[in-house]
Amino acid sequence: MVVLLVLSVLATAIILVKLYQFYQSGLRQLGFVGHVVSVLRRGQHSKALRVLQQQRNPVARVMESAVQCGADSRMSAKDIEAEVSRVGSAQIRNLESWLRGLSAIAHLSPLLGLLGTVMGMITAFMRLEEVGSRVDPSILSGGIWEALLTTAFGLTVAIPAMAAFYYLEGEVDRVRAAMKDAVIRITLYFGKSPTRVETRDDAKPEEETYGV
Length: 212
Known about the structure:
The protein is mainly α. The chain has one domain. The chain has seven helices and two strands, in the order H-H-H-H-H-H-H-E-E. The protein has helices at residues 2-25, 31-41, 45-53, 58-71, 77-96, 99-131, 137-189, and strands at 196-198, 208-210. A two-stranded antiparallel sheet has the order 1-2. The protein starts with a helix and ends with a strand. The relative contact order is 0.16.
């Protein structure tokens, strides 16, 4: 129970920190993307960069890198791809920080609760053995409900943690998709279409994206 209590406090702290980080980053404020693309089409590269520099959204950082690299005639499509991938991966890793810890808590809490229940049941039956023939049903029933408390507490910790993990992971995936779309629009404008690049170091082969 003490371990589960510590995990619940840690999970709550991670959730609050990530929600604050996502709010501060303005992840849902993507209205600037279309504005920047239209400014670029008018040939105002410096103005587009100024607009991007005023944004806190990680998508803006990737777009800024794409604009700077695209405007550099010395950089090939492959060079742009490598630089934008580097910036995009750094932004995604920052958003994904501590999410694995939250996932670990969500998966370990029910197992720890089950372990506590099994240990409690063992203790209850050991007490029952000690009394021998003078069996008191309250001894067994009391030991069982005490043992089941750890499972209930473990599930209480795991369910909100898992729900929060999937929500936060969904927000990261949405940002990753927005990066992909924005980079494609910018590189096509410069006539340097990117090829497929991984968005993060541990991405699976099917989790590829363009230019981020």
